[in-house]
């Protein structure tokens, strides 16, 4: 199973006659309130990933996240370094069993398994991504150490205290209740085990009374299936409430070279290798998808998917440029060690 071609976009994830109705349902959740999105989070998130997974793989690759980037560093190298950073923080090594929370098609899971030698269970609630990722694990020769668990991360079908470590890359932002999610992850971890992740957050520069800031936040929520976006401190408070001890936390966005911010791949700058995810590349993809839809090669609704992804991408760039938003608030926490009797 290779990368999807342009003509595959949205055709493989859903039957053609369902695409338009799923797009409409997804839009209806964002016409409602935060509560509407929290109540319908399973449908909203699954609709979204059914619609966009092929676009993500086509435009971005098998790892669905951003990364801070240094001068002269290639996009793929920055993505891998961001993954290995978490593996190092957790000190993953052969013999350990880690949980990857909201694992996408498993790009980070495979990279981290190779890097660390650990075994990894990736939890995901999206059938289509699991189907693609399972084949990719086999193709990579990693099926022995990388497996998918089809489940809602809010209620894991896992026993207490089974995991040596947990990580989450840009996935807990979809949770309807972060304290509940972190409490659930705490439950499945061994005493003394560590949890690290990257969370999508508002920074202290976000001002809820500023109309432009609110529009950017809404654009990111709509473009990326989020119920809401929290301040960094609220995420730390939720981790503490769940019982974790904070080891370390900081926003990694300022660690990019000023010339290569995390949102650069989505912005207007020309890049031959990354052309598909630049503004021009996304505009061209959108026009080509429209031609495919008009000629009935792509199903009705395909252009709407490409369009709302473009709006989301533009909001992310604005969030990055204004500094009111980060997709890489890094946290590293620990479940307290068991007390000796
Ligand atoms: C932005 S993607 C990140 C994927 C992956 N961590 C990566 O970096 O490639 C978010 C992922 O979280 C998963 N997800 C969202 N809500 C979930 C839930 N309630 N239970 C399980 N997985 C969920 C989505 O299906 C998707 O795979």
Key features of this structure:
binds S-adenosylmethionine; 43% helix; 341 residues; Rossmann fold; single chain; alpha/beta
Short description:
With 341 residues, the chain is α/β, with parallel strands linked by helices. The chain has eleven helices and eight strands. The protein folds into two domains: 123 residues, no CATH class; 190 residues, Vaccinia Virus protein VP39 (Rossmann fold), CATH 3.40.50.150.
Share in helix: 40-55%
Termini, distance in Å?
A: 53 Å
Q: What structural class is derived from the secondary structure elements? A: alpha/beta
| Spatial extent as radius of gyration | 19 Å
Enumerate how many helices there are, as a single number: 11
Q: What would you say this structure looks like, in words?
A:
With 341 residues, the protein is of the alpha/beta class. The chain folds into 2 domains: 6-64 and 258-321, no CATH class; 75-253 and 324-334, Vaccinia Virus protein VP39 (Rossmann fold). It is built from 11 helices and 8 strands. It has helices at residues 19-31, 34-39, 41-59, 75-89, 107-116, 127-139, 178-188, 211-224, 232-241, 279-294, 302-322; strands spanning 97-101, 119-124, 146-150, 163-169, 189-202, 230-231, 245-251, 325-334. Strands 1, 2, 3, 4, 5, 6, 7 and 8 form an 8-stranded mixed beta sheet that branches. β2 (119-124), α6 (127-139) and β3 (146-150) form a beta-alpha-beta unit. α1 (19-31) packs across α3 (41-59) and α7 (178-188) crosses α9 (232-241). The radius of gyration is 19 Å and the shape is globular. The chain starts with 18 loop residues before the first helix and ends in a 7-residue tail after the last strand. The model has no long low-confidence stretch (mean pLDDT 89). It binds S-adenosylmethionine. The site of S-adenosylmethionine has 22 residues, from α3, α5 and β2.
């Amino acid at each position: 199973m290779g990368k999807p071609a342009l003509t595959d976009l949205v055709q493989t994830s859903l039957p053609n006659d369902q695409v338009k109705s799923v797009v409409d349902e997804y839009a209806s959740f964002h016409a409602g309130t935060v509560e509407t999105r929290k109540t319908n989070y399973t449908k909203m998130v699954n609709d979204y990933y059914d619609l966009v997974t092929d676009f993500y793989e086509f435009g971005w690759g098998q790892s669905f996240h951003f990364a801070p980037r240094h001068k002269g560093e290639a996009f793929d190298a920055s993505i891998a370094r961001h993954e290995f950073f978490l593996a190092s923080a957790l000190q993953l090594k052969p013999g350990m069993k880690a949980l990857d929370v909201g694992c996408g098609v498993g790009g980070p899971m495979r990279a981290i398994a190779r890097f660390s030698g650990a075994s990894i269970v990736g939890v995901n609630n999206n059938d289509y991504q699991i189907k693609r990722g399972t084949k990719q694990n086999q193709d990579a020769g990693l099926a022995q150490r990388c497996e998918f668990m089809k489940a809602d991360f809010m209620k894991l079908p896992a026993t207490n205290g089974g995991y040596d470590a947990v990580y989450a890359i840009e996935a807990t932002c979809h949770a309807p209740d972060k304290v509940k999610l972190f409490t659930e992850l705490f439950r499945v971890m061994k005493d003394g085990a560590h949890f690290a992740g990257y969370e999508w957050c508002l920074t202290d520069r976000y001002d809820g009374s500023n109309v432009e800031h609110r529009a950017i936040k809404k654009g990111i929520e709509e473009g990326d299936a989020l119920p809401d976006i929290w301040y960094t401190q609220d995420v730390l408070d939720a981790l503490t409430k769940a019982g974790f001890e904070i080891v370390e936390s900081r926003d990694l966005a300022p660690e990019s070279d000023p010339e290569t911010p995390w949102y650069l791949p989505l912005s207007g700058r020309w890049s031959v290798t990354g052309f598909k995810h630049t503004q021009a590349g996304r505009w061209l993809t959108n026009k080509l998808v429209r031609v495919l839809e008009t000629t009935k090669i792509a199903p009705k609704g395909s252009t709407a998917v490409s369009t709302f992804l473009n709006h989301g991408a533009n909001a992310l760039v604005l969030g990055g440029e204004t500094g009111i938003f980060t997709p890489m608030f890094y946290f590293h926490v620990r479940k307290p060690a068991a007390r000796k009797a």
